[in-house]
Protein backbone atom coordinates (compact mmCIF):
# COMPACT_ATOMS: atom_id res chain seq x y z
CA UNK A 1 0.00 0.00 0.00
CA UNK A 2 1.48 3.31 -1.11
CA UNK A 3 0.03 6.43 0.54
CA UNK A 4 0.48 9.97 -0.78
CA UNK A 5 -1.10 13.27 0.23
CA UNK A 6 -0.40 15.94 -2.42
CA UNK A 7 -2.64 18.43 -0.55
CA UNK A 8 -4.25 18.69 2.89
CA UNK A 9 -7.64 17.75 1.45
CA UNK A 10 -6.47 14.96 -0.91
CA UNK A 11 -5.14 11.48 -0.15
CA UNK A 12 -4.13 8.98 -2.81
CA UNK A 13 -3.70 5.32 -1.90
CA UNK A 14 -2.29 2.83 -4.40
CA UNK A 15 -3.33 -0.73 -3.61
CA UNK A 16 -1.42 -3.57 -5.25
CA UNK A 17 -3.01 -6.82 -6.34
CA UNK A 18 -1.64 -8.37 -3.13
CA UNK A 19 -3.15 -5.55 -1.02
CA UNK A 20 -6.53 -6.25 -2.63
CA UNK A 21 -6.21 -9.95 -1.82
CA UNK A 22 -5.35 -9.16 1.79
CA UNK A 23 -8.31 -6.77 2.02
CA UNK A 24 -10.49 -9.49 0.44
CA UNK A 25 -12.01 -7.27 -2.25
CA UNK A 26 -11.79 -6.74 -6.00
CA UNK A 27 -12.21 -3.53 -7.97
CA UNK A 28 -15.31 -4.99 -9.65
CA UNK A 29 -16.93 -5.73 -6.25
CA UNK A 30 -16.35 -2.23 -4.84
CA UNK A 31 -19.67 -0.59 -4.04
CA UNK A 32 -20.02 1.77 -1.08
CA UNK A 33 -23.51 0.43 -0.37
CA UNK A 34 -21.95 -2.86 0.79
CA UNK A 35 -20.42 -3.38 4.23
CA UNK A 36 -17.39 -5.10 2.64
CA UNK A 37 -16.48 -1.97 0.67
CA UNK A 38 -17.04 0.30 3.67
CA UNK A 39 -14.79 -1.99 5.75
CA UNK A 40 -12.04 -1.66 3.13
CA UNK A 41 -12.44 2.13 2.94
CA UNK A 42 -12.29 2.48 6.73
CA UNK A 43 -9.24 0.19 6.90
CA UNK A 44 -7.45 2.12 4.15
CA UNK A 45 -8.29 5.47 5.79
CA UNK A 46 -6.99 4.13 9.11
CA UNK A 47 -3.69 3.09 7.51
CA UNK A 48 -3.42 6.41 5.68
CA UNK A 49 -4.02 8.30 8.93
CA UNK A 50 -1.23 6.35 10.67
CA UNK A 51 1.14 6.92 7.76
CA UNK A 52 0.37 10.64 7.50
CA UNK A 53 0.31 11.21 11.25
CA UNK A 54 -3.19 12.66 11.37
CA UNK A 55 -6.69 11.49 12.16
CA UNK A 56 -8.84 10.71 9.14
CA UNK A 57 -12.43 10.43 10.28
CA UNK A 58 -14.47 8.29 7.85
CA UNK A 59 -17.61 10.22 8.85
CA UNK A 60 -16.25 13.43 7.28
CA UNK A 61 -17.72 14.57 3.98
CA UNK A 62 -15.55 13.31 1.10
CA UNK A 63 -15.51 12.09 -2.45
CA UNK A 64 -13.96 8.67 -2.96
CA UNK A 65 -12.79 7.68 -6.44
CA UNK A 66 -11.52 4.22 -7.42
CA UNK A 67 -9.49 3.54 -10.56
CA UNK A 68 -8.33 0.08 -11.63
CA UNK A 69 -4.62 -0.54 -12.17
CA UNK A 70 -3.50 -2.61 -15.14
CA UNK A 71 -1.24 -4.81 -13.07
CA UNK A 72 -4.09 -5.52 -10.65
CA UNK A 73 -5.10 -3.55 -7.61
CA UNK A 74 -6.52 -0.05 -7.75
CA UNK A 75 -5.95 3.55 -6.79
CA UNK A 76 -8.26 5.16 -4.23
CA UNK A 77 -8.41 8.95 -4.19
CA UNK A 78 -10.04 10.63 -1.19
CA UNK A 79 -10.99 14.30 -1.51
CA UNK A 80 -12.10 15.76 1.82
CA UNK A 81 -14.77 18.37 1.11
CA UNK A 82 -14.67 20.29 4.38
CA UNK A 83 -14.10 19.83 8.10
CA UNK A 84 -17.74 19.09 8.89
CA UNK A 85 -19.09 15.64 9.50
CA UNK A 86 -21.71 14.43 7.12
CA UNK A 87 -25.34 14.27 8.21
CA UNK A 88 -27.45 11.13 8.07
CA UNK A 89 -28.98 12.39 4.80
CA UNK A 90 -25.58 12.82 3.15
CA UNK A 91 -23.98 9.67 1.87
CA UNK A 92 -20.45 8.86 0.85
CA UNK A 93 -20.19 8.04 -2.81
CA UNK A 94 -17.62 5.74 -4.33
CA UNK A 95 -17.12 6.86 -7.89
CA UNK A 96 -15.47 4.30 -10.13
CA UNK A 97 -13.54 5.66 -13.05
CA UNK A 98 -13.59 3.57 -16.19
CA UNK A 99 -10.29 4.53 -17.71
CA UNK A 100 -10.36 1.65 -20.12
CA UNK A 101 -9.14 1.51 -23.67
CA UNK A 102 -10.46 -0.04 -26.87
CA UNK A 103 -8.04 -1.94 -29.09
CA UNK A 104 -9.13 -2.61 -32.68
CA UNK A 105 -7.28 -5.46 -34.43
CA UNK A 106 -7.34 -6.09 -38.17
CA UNK A 107 -6.65 -9.81 -37.79
CA UNK A 108 -6.42 -12.68 -35.34
CA UNK A 109 -2.61 -12.97 -35.57
CA UNK A 110 -2.11 -9.45 -34.22
CA UNK A 111 -4.63 -10.14 -31.48
CA UNK A 112 -2.77 -13.30 -30.36
CA UNK A 113 0.59 -11.51 -30.47
CA UNK A 114 -0.81 -8.71 -28.30
CA UNK A 115 -2.23 -11.26 -25.83
CA UNK A 116 1.15 -12.99 -25.63
CA UNK A 117 2.88 -9.65 -25.01
CA UNK A 118 0.55 -8.79 -22.11
CA UNK A 119 1.20 -12.20 -20.57
CA UNK A 120 4.97 -11.88 -21.07
CA UNK A 121 5.05 -8.53 -19.27
CA UNK A 122 2.82 -9.80 -16.45
CA UNK A 123 -0.10 -7.41 -16.83
CA UNK A 124 -3.33 -8.83 -15.47
CA UNK A 125 -5.81 -6.81 -17.50
CA UNK A 126 -9.58 -7.12 -17.27
CA UNK A 127 -10.71 -7.63 -20.87
CA UNK A 128 -13.64 -8.43 -23.18
CA UNK A 129 -13.44 -9.49 -26.83
CA UNK A 130 -15.80 -8.72 -29.72
CA UNK A 131 -15.82 -9.53 -33.46
CA UNK A 132 -17.37 -7.79 -36.47
CA UNK A 133 -16.73 -8.79 -40.11
CA UNK A 134 -13.31 -10.32 -39.36
CA UNK A 135 -12.13 -7.43 -37.20
CA UNK A 136 -11.60 -7.85 -33.48
CA UNK A 137 -12.20 -5.37 -30.66
CA UNK A 138 -10.59 -5.89 -27.27
CA UNK A 139 -11.88 -3.73 -24.44
CA UNK A 140 -9.41 -3.39 -21.58
CA UNK A 141 -10.35 -2.23 -18.10
CA UNK A 142 -7.34 0.05 -17.68
CA UNK A 143 -5.49 2.62 -19.71
CA UNK A 144 -1.95 3.01 -18.46
CA UNK A 145 0.56 4.54 -20.85
CA UNK A 146 2.66 1.36 -20.54
CA UNK A 147 -0.19 -0.84 -21.81
CA UNK A 148 -1.04 1.62 -24.60
CA UNK A 149 2.57 1.72 -25.72
CA UNK A 150 2.95 -2.05 -25.55
CA UNK A 151 -0.20 -2.78 -27.59
CA UNK A 152 0.06 0.08 -30.10
CA UNK A 153 2.26 -1.94 -32.45
CA UNK A 154 -0.51 -4.55 -32.82
CA UNK A 155 -3.70 -2.48 -33.00
CA UNK A 156 -5.40 0.89 -33.18
CA UNK A 157 -6.02 2.21 -29.65
CA UNK A 158 -8.81 4.54 -28.52
CA UNK A 159 -9.90 5.79 -25.14
CA UNK A 160 -13.03 4.11 -23.91
CA UNK A 161 -16.28 6.06 -23.62
CA UNK A 162 -19.90 5.12 -23.00
CA UNK A 163 -21.03 5.82 -26.58
CA UNK A 164 -18.36 3.54 -28.07
CA UNK A 165 -19.10 0.83 -25.49
CA UNK A 166 -22.83 0.97 -26.22
CA UNK A 167 -22.16 0.82 -29.98
CA UNK A 168 -19.85 -2.19 -29.51
CA UNK A 169 -22.36 -4.03 -27.34
CA UNK A 170 -25.15 -3.40 -29.83
CA UNK A 171 -23.39 -4.06 -33.15
CA UNK A 172 -20.42 -6.33 -32.46
CA UNK A 173 -20.65 -10.03 -31.54
CA UNK A 174 -19.28 -10.78 -28.08
CA UNK A 175 -16.80 -13.66 -28.10
CA UNK A 176 -15.48 -13.52 -24.51
CA UNK A 177 -17.12 -11.35 -21.86
CA UNK A 178 -14.47 -11.58 -19.14
CA UNK A 179 -10.72 -12.33 -19.01
CA UNK A 180 -10.52 -12.45 -22.80
CA UNK A 181 -6.72 -12.32 -22.95
CA UNK A 182 -6.38 -15.29 -20.61
CA UNK A 183 -9.04 -17.19 -22.57
CA UNK A 184 -7.23 -16.52 -25.88
CA UNK A 185 -3.92 -17.78 -24.50
CA UNK A 186 -5.55 -20.91 -23.03
CA UNK A 187 -7.16 -21.70 -26.43
CA UNK A 188 -3.88 -21.13 -28.22
CA UNK A 189 -2.05 -23.54 -25.88
CA UNK A 190 -4.67 -26.25 -26.51
CA UNK A 191 -4.22 -25.99 -30.30
Structural key phrases:
191 residues; alpha+beta; Alpha-Beta Plaits; 2 domains; 5-stranded mixed sheet; 6 helices; 35% helix; 32% strand
Describe this protein's structure:
The protein is of the alpha+beta class. It folds into two domains: 2-96, no CATH class; 101-190, Alpha-Beta Plaits (2-Layer Sandwich), CATH 3.30.70. Helices cover 35% and strands 32% of the residues. The protein has helices at residues 17-23, 35-52, 108-121, 145-151, 162-171, 180-190, and strands at residues 2-7, 10-15, 60-68, 74-85, 93-96, 101-105, 127-132, 135-140, 156-159, 173-176. The mean pLDDT is 82.
Structure summarized in a few sentences:
The chain has six helices and ten strands; from the N terminus they run ββααββββαββαβαβα.
> Can you write the helix and strand succession as a string?
EEHHEEEEHEEHEHEH
Q: Kindly provide the radius of gyration, computed on alpha-carbon positions and rounded to a whole number of angstroms.
A: 19 Å
Mean pLDDT, all residues? 82
Major sheet: size, sense and barrel closure? 5 strands, mixed
Poorly predicted tracts of residues: none
- What is the count of distinct domains? 2
Helix content: 25-40%
Total strands: the figure is: 10
Q: Kindly name the structural category.
A: alpha+beta
The N- to C-terminal Cα distance equals 40 Å
Q: Which word captures the global form?
A: elongated
Strand proportion, as a percent range, falls in 25-35%
The spatial strand order of the largest sheet comes to 1-2-4-3-5
Individual helix count: 6
Amino acid sequence: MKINSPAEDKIIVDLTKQDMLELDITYEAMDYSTIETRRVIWTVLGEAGKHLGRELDPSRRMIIEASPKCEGGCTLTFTILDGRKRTAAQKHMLRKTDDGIICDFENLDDLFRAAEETQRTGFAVQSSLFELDGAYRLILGCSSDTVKSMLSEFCKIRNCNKLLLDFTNEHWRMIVSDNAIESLLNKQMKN
